[in-house]
Write a structure and sequence with these properties.
Elements (H helix, E strand, L loop, with lengths): L1 H61 L8 E6 L4 E2 L10 H5 L5 E3 L11 E3 L1 E8 L5 E11 L4 E9 L5 E8 L13 H4 L17 E2 L10 E2 L6 H15 L5 H8 L4
Parallel strand pairs: 9-10
Antiparallel strand pairs: 1-2, 1-5, 3-4, 5-6, 6-7, 7-8
Length: 256
Amino acid sequence: MADNTHSENPARALLIALGVAMVCALVVSFTAVVLRPHYQTNLENERIGRLGSILDALAEVTGEVDVSKLEALVVDLATGQYDKSVDAALYNARKAALDPAQSTAVSAENDLAGIKRRANHAVVYLIRGPENSVEALVLPIWGVGYQSAIYGYLALSADSREILAIKFYEHGETPGLGSRIQDARWEALWPGKQAFDDDGAVIVHVGNRGGGDGDNRIEAISGATRTSMGVDGMVRFWLGEYGFGPYLSRIRRGEG
């Protein structure tokens, strides 16, 4: 009798373990379904909060824009084409950049933003006018500054050639120095600068790198050289061929 009891214990333990695993799987699935709407709501609220800052900066150029009127589209950064198979409301570029299956390694020589990996997709926002014509493009940008990663938005004219506004919403740069990337006086230096030359090369830059005149140069922040260099690198990266370059080229050719 004792021998039978001992021989049955492993089987019973396995059945119990399988039963517990099934119950846990059902609970997790049920929870995911129940919480999904809340997750979507939180993502949307976070997105609206961030976009609100760039829309405020754009108000003087495009007029007041209701964030709910923005058209969000997902761009395949390699081709520059819109990818309708990806849900713009749920796509998380930060998370995707950490996943080798959803991102691309950037070589050191091309990594002007210092990000190491770039998500394969990005969500861009179109601001449309009264007759549904595109008035402005809003691009997410990020890169490494002096002490932290810096996240923001860059707004361009409908043909992508002119910068309309820039806004940084998250960083950990030095208070009173690098943190001045959020200073309204420095942000006011960007509108009207030319992003590209006639051949499509990126010409906007921060500081004295490469010279240039007032049409494409933004003064560096005094006392925050490394942060200024970080912003310079990230803007040029995201406007370039490894960022939104293919997409913006299509825009300028009228293929957007």
